[in-house]
Backbone:
């Protein structure tokens, strides 16, 4: 059944967050490593490894989703200590990496055209994103995303984040659709797919040919898997 409304995650679904994060760390590690007596590549790899470990337990790390600088500071501190380095520069490295990362975030090539095409076909659209109000609103305003959506739910504003069922209920109310009339598109199996399924929403996992579906104990099983948004448009019969 074709849905009446479609909810979208933002980071790594509509905006290329992963590439911005990776490049941001690369630039900042090249900037700071010489003064620390460290190898830039080794430092970046250690930071990315510590970051993956930090966010692995998504439920435990949830309080940090609305505190981006605090989470970065802790990840950098852990990485510096793991490399046997002084952790005093952690604050400055975290701040610089945040600046570099946010300046590089941009929509995927298919994002804006997909939103415009869906709006033209009369779909009700919602944006449902975890994270801090300031950080997420800055991205929404920079890329003029609000004009595409009938409802925007940000964790920092609403007070709860995905996969909390209340988040999806609030988004559905905003787009004027029942759960069985909506699809949720997102890259995070735990927050987007698990949350949508628990709310009774048809779940669409977008992997962008970067993510691998976990063979053992996935957080949730999506109803549909897509690599890019062209596959979503094809499923809906939207050119």
Residues:
């Amino acid at each position: 059944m074709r849905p009446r409304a479609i909810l979208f995650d933002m980071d790594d679904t509509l905006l290329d967050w992963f590439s911005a994060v990776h490049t941001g760390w690369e630039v900042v590690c090249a900037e700071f490593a010489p003064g620390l007596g460290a190898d830039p590549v080794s430092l970046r790899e250690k930071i990315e490894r510590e970051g993956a470990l930090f966010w692995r337990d998504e439920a435990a790390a949830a309080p940090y989703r609305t505190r981006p600088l605090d989470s970065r500071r802790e990840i950098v501190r852990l990485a510096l200590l793991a490399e046997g380095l002084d952790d005093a520069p952690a604050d400055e490295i975290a701040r610089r990496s945040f600046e570099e990362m946010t300046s590089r975030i941009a929509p995927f090539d298919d994002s804006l055209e997909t939103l415009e095409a869906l709006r033209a076909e009369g779909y009700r659209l919602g944006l449902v994103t975890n994270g801090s109000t300031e950080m997420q609103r800055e991205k929404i305003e920079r890329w003029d995303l609000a004009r595409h959506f009938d409802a925007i739910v940000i964790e920092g504003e609403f007070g709860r984040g995905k996969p909390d069922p209340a988040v999806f209920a609030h988004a559905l109310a905003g787009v004027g659709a029942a759960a069985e009339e909506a699809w949720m598109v997102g890259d995070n199996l735990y927050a987007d797919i698990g949350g949508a399924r628990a709310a009774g929403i048809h779940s669409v996992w977008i992997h962008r040919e970067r993510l691998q579906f976990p063979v053992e104990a996935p957080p949730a099983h999506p109803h549909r898997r897509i690599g890019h948004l062209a596959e979503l448009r094809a499923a809906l019969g939207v050119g």
Remarks:
- Strands lie at 5-8, 124-129, 151-154, 182-186, 202-206, 224-226.
- The chain has two domains: 5-16+106-236, 17-104.
- The chain has a mean pLDDT of 96.
- The longest strand covers residues 124-129.
